[in-house]
Amino acid sequence: MQVTVVVPTFNEGPNVEELVGRLAVAVEGIDAEVIFVDDSTDDTPAVVDRVAEASTLPVRLLRRDEPVGGLSGAVVEGLGQARGEWVVVMDGDLQHPPEMVPVLLETAASTGADLVVASRYTGNGDAGGLDGRWRHLVSSASSLLARSMFPVRLRNVTDPMTGFFAVRTAAIDVAALRPRGFKILLEILARNKVEVVEEPFVFGERFAGESKATFANGLRYLQQLTALRFGRMSTFALVGAFGAVLNLAIMWGLEQFGVHYMPAAVVSAAVTIVTNFLLLEHFVFHDLRDEGRNVWKRAAQSFTFNGIEAAVRLPFLHWLVVLTGMPPVLAQALTLVVAFLLRFVFHAQVVYRPRKSEPAPVVPLTGEKAAPAADED
């Protein structure tokens, strides 16, 4: 069998018939099947059974009594049951257009990639189907954070948050996946060495029902990122913590000599900006120093950003001290905490951003699975 379409569902009954109908037309002439992996609390399983009886496209239902791992867990179970050489993962709400399935497969065939990501943020792609500006902002920020934490694995991926992609089953180790939450693509990319290309697509409106995105899902996403990529960010945090302690110590020492807290903050910021850059070069991003930028350009970018960031923090520091009566050192500590994530994202995405790699040439399928290696980024 050429392709299995895996659709994780949770209370998506009203969308099933339309989805299967459009898929059947889209994959006509392709040896294909659909697996619905269902965690629903409504009549969705009955709807799938009814649609399957009338469909010309083979439809299977995998009903889960325990939704272990959430949507990601459902996808992993679908991958384990797939008969196809390729698996296309897509949502059941029709925001992922079924007509894109053959496009993803054609891109895979023409490039020799192991995984084709349907991206909202490359080429003519569009995320217009997201509900409101807040969802757009959350999606963009989440993608940026993921790419910052995995700069090498995601160097060719603009949309690691998408749930729409095609993957060659022989290229991944399903048993190595540790599903949680709803961002299975990130899990696959972090734990498998695969050749990745992207195909732009327009994220559509929901056909029926409501979005399943919740604040709890967002927390699980952060948990997933932390579990997958604790290495580089933890080292960055240690450097940042050292810089913060140094910053506060210098500021406190200067205040003891009668220096006003504002110039003391300027001096402490200047010293720690230089110190932090040297530590980042040697302990955090040492493997990304040969990505096309010389040390002077990296230093200029780092110093410029940190200088602007420090300049923005100083008025905020003054506001905290004057309007709230907070002790200057405590106020400075709070501003440093707020700035940490911004500094990490900038350095990962700008100063040490890896160059994009070229797709590998087409090679015969070997059937060998890639070993999990989430810690090489």
Describe the structure.
The protein has 377 residues and is an alpha/beta fold. Helices cover 51% and strands 10% of the residues. It has a 7-stranded mixed sheet with strand order 3-2-1-4-6-5-7, with helices on both faces. The protein is elongated and about 85 Å long.
List the defining traits of the structure above.
single chain, disordered C terminus, elongated, 10% strand, alpha/beta, seven-stranded mixed beta sheet, 377 residues
Short description:
This protein is about 50% helix and about 10% strand. With about 375 residues, the protein is α/β, with parallel strands linked by helices.
Q: Helicity, in percent?
A: 40-55%
Strand content: 5-15%
Give average pLDDT, whole number. 81
The overall strand count is: 7
Q: Note the main sheet.
A: 7 strands, mixed
Order of helices and strands: EHEHEHEHEHEHEHHHHH
Poorly predicted parts: 359-376
Strand order of the largest sheet: 3-2-1-4-6-5-7
Shape descriptor reads elongated
Q: How far do the termini sit from each other?
A: 34 Å
Return Rg in Å. 24 Å
Number of helices: 11
> Structural class from helices and strands?
alpha/beta
